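Researcher: Quick one. two chains, 484 residues in total.
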Amino acid sequence: MKKTVSRRNLLKGGLAGTAAIAVMKNNETQAAQTFEGYPEGMGVLVDLTRCVGCRSCEAACNKEQGLPEPAKPFDDYSVFDEIKHGQKRRTDETAYTIVNKYDIPELDHPLFRKVQCNHCQEPACLTSCFVNAYTKTPEGAVIYNSKVCVGCRTCMIACPFYIPTFKYSSAFNPRIMKCIFCYDTRLKDGKPPACVEACPQEALTFGRRNDLINMGRQRIRETPGKYVEHIYGETEVGGTAWMYLSSVSFDKVGFDTHVPKEPILNSVKEFLAIVPMVLTIWPGLFAGFHLLATRKEKIKEQEEKEEQV
Amino acid sequence: MRTRKRIIQTAFALAFGGILIIPTHGWSMDAEDAPESVTIDSLANLYTGVEFNHAMHVEYASCQECHHHTTGGAVVNPNCARCHRNSGEADEVTCTGCHATNRFSETYIRALEAPELYHIDKPGLKGAYHLNCVSCHETTSGPTGCLDCHTMTESGEKMFNTGSHSPAKGQQSGH
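Model:
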């Protein structure tokens, strides 16, 4: 007996095949999830208990990166009281790093927090960029290439720390402004970024990221009561190269403590993995279905034509 | 014969007596051994160096509060005491003897990988100075502002956009 493939079985087979590919794709994403950054990657440990708010890091960054002259001198501490749109100061196209002051009720002195790009292990800006303008270098920096940037500003929305800023003053020559870990001028030659070198209090400790985690843990362990038992950035958004130690809970010094533990990419990875599959397999598959479904009609038409002749 | 015996006895007494006088935890330095004043200017660039009045500070703090275990006094910090309770006076007591000026150089960071190293987090020279001075000055109402101890140099004014390098008045930063 001649075995014919029924329409139902064919559909079943097609779906099973699609599912199998989907599972394979998922396995690939599982493998990608285990990326934990480059083992030799560098980082900086910021110790809020040491920072005295001298703004030396801001001044050093401004000079190193050739940023515009500030509105106020870097030894003017009235900037700590500036509030814009109901918020404390944040990084913009003229400043890759800023220091903010926080008055803590239970402490007899304020705490200062330095803000800059945290150089994520798996950066959301990088994964969101469709022209690959961002690169995570083996040294740990997240750098940016203005030559390919089209100015879509998706990275600004993707960043969980609101770091990349747009140079609105040159909208036709799009350029994102953000800390690049002094990659071009220092990091690639094994030197610390300018801010670290300028810090008098060694509130910024430059080193291999793995070593910095050990240092942070040692400080927490050996000075009981001085720190909260957490290194911000060790696990946040899959880990960041810049990490923080604090004497009070991190939400009191302006940190977002609700960021996920996993890289931002993981929220969209599964969906994104299906996109190429849909684009490559579905057209062929459904074209095939169509042809099969209309085959009998075509044969009939042919036969009718032949009969007429 | 008798005199000879006495000589031997005296010699023994002197020898053992000498041992008994030696303190059990080694020699330790006194404040009188310290210099009157120390010029701290090895890193001076943006600011001028500081003339540190050592004799005056001896009245405020014990040796080990700044020199840790190196001067041979009783170690206060329990973390240090774990190894240095009886380590006595060190060959090197100056800040520069232990705290490196190249703290963040590639060679220094590589050296931190040595598995037997305990001091993985020793501040560099600049950090050591400021962490020691400023934290104590905060609790003893000593001077804490940058310019309370330092004078800013011309290159410092340039770096901080202040003094003769102040930004023009009325200028606002772009959005």
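The two ends of chain B are 103 Å apart (CA to CA).
Researcher: Thanks, that's what I needed.
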